[in-house]
Design a protein that fits this description.
Length: about 60
């Protein structure tokens, strides 16, 4: 599986806006070799590909 860096970065921006920068950075820094692929997958596909669609309004408030 190839990860998409652009979608990851887009997802990371959205994830931080919704959950808070500190929370997201702590989750990523605490990830080990086992669970980092899941962190990356979630950020890229859930936050980047799904939440990052232009059709979805961005109605969340920054934490």
């Amino acid at each position: 599986m190839t990860m998409n860096d652009d979608l990851f970065e887009k997802g990371l921006e959205i994830r931080k806006a919704v959950l808070g920068k500190e929370f997201v950075e702590n989750a990523l820094s605490a990830a080990d070799d086992f669970n980092m692929p899941m962190q990356r997958l979630t950020t890229e596909y859930c936050w980047g590909a799904v939440w990052g669609r232009d059709e979805l309004p961005k109605k969340f408030a920054a934490c």
